[in-house]
Amino acid sequence: MFYLNQLQYPLIPYRHNIDHGGRPVGRENVAAAACGPCSLCMVVNNLTFAHLTLEECLRTANEVHANGEPGTSLAILGPVIAERYGLTYANSYDIQDALDCLAVGGMVVANPGGDRDGKVGLFTHGGHYIVLVSVEDGELTILDPSLSEDKFRQEGREGRVRVNYPFVYCSVDILKEECVRPFPSYHLFKRKK
Questions:
Q1: Contacts of residue 84, Cβ cutoff 8 Å, sequence gap at least 6
Q2: What span, in angstroms and rounded, lies between the C-alpha atoms of 83 and 95?
Q3: Of 78, 168, 183, 166, which Cα lies nearest the Cα of 127?
Q4: For position 24, what pLDDT does the model report?
Q5: Annotated domain spans of the chain
Q6: pLDDT tens per residue across span 10-41
């Protein structure tokens, strides 16, 4: 299973939020903001025989202006990458659509929203993308592009997932609670027939 951790790339620049003057110094890099491109690389490299490099994905995000807001818009970048690599793309707010995609061998990039209503976000304090690999008996297998040794040891996160690096395991119900945002919660990728 191909895994890409954005935290290993603090020296690779990634321009984003360009419609609003860019990000503060120190935050315009892969480690800080490229969870979307890293997630797409994992999807392509695990679902196809192709190899999508991080550099190519970042270039494409810039070319299609998926980096105009903070981070990356997968509603813009996802369909472009899917078309280039022989995948289908759809997005949804419904967890059942994500589970159905996984059931037929697809992968899903989920968009957990972070802290809200006094509750600590499980995968992020702000916004983030993670890759759903499979589901079995109500538990999801996840590749988190910002997985660190202490991420799930933080107060408010402890005991809500289990980790066997590079995989994170989480209940469907917990993920559903985390993916309540005004943006599509799930980006669905499948091999074209």
A1: 60
A2: 23
A3: 183
A4: 66
A5: 6-191
A6: 999 998 887 777 766 667 899 999 999 999 99
Three-class SS state of 38: helix
List, for residues 174-185, the tens digit of each pLDDT value.
999 999 877 899
Q: Provide the β-strand partners of residue 141.
A: 134, 169
Find out whether 111 and 128 touch, Cβ atoms under 8 Å: yes
Are the C-beta atoms of residues 141 and 172 closer than 8 Å to each other? Answer: no
The helix (run of H) or strand (run of E) holding residue 80 is helix 74-84
Tokens 């996840």, residue? 142
Instruction: Decide if domain 6-191 falls under CATH 3.90.70.10.
Output: yes
| Share in percent of the chain as helix, strand, coil (round to 5) | 35, 20, 45
